[in-house]
Amino acid sequence: MVMAMRGMLLLQWGLLNMYLNYKLMDDVFKISMIAFMFVALGEPSEIFAWYQRLIDKLPLWLNKPLGGCGMCFSGQVSFWYFLVTHLNNYNLVEHLYFVSLTIFLVNIYSLIWNYENP
């Protein structure tokens, strides 16, 4: 009976952990895509060109994290998103993983977006 209870608890913990990892990955994909598209649509002929012109007047150290650089912007968004949403159960390794994976995906999106225009 005790072994069955322990097995059930481990199964529930495993399912919860799997759900949290799915949620984490889902958030990474959403944030990376939204951040990438926000920066990509800031190109001169796109809808957010006005925003790019606005932040181009700022110093470079402020321009990049506000949308001048896709990787910098996605890193900032994912850094602050994770920090705000995981205040109760903060884990530094998961935070670094979250931000790193977001930046990595934005780099892949950038390669795909610019495939025809090297």
Description:
The protein is an all-alpha fold. The protein has one domain. Helices cover 79% and strands 0% of the residues. It contains five helices and no strands. It has helices at 2-40, 49-55, 60-68, 70-85, 92-113. α1 (2-40) packs antiparallel against α4, α1 (2-40) packs across α5 and α4 (70-85) runs antiparallel to α5 (92-113).
Proportion of beta-strand residues: under 5%
Q: Which spans have pLDDT < 50 for at least 5 consecutive residues?
A: 9-13
What's the overall geometry?
globular
The proportion of residues forming helix, as a percent range, comes to: over 70%
Number of strands: 0
Structural class: mainly alpha
Write down the domain tally: 1
Please state the average pLDDT score: 84
Multimerization state: single chain
SSE string, helices as H and strands as E: HHHHH
Number of helices: 5
Radius of gyration, CA atoms, in whole angstroms: 19 Å
Largest sheet: none
Kindly, what is the distance between the CA atoms of the first and last residues, rounded to a whole number of angstroms?
Answer: 64 Å
Question: Which SSEs are present, and which pair or pack?
Answer:
Blueprint: H1 2-40, H2 49-55, H3 60-68, H4 70-85, H5 92-113
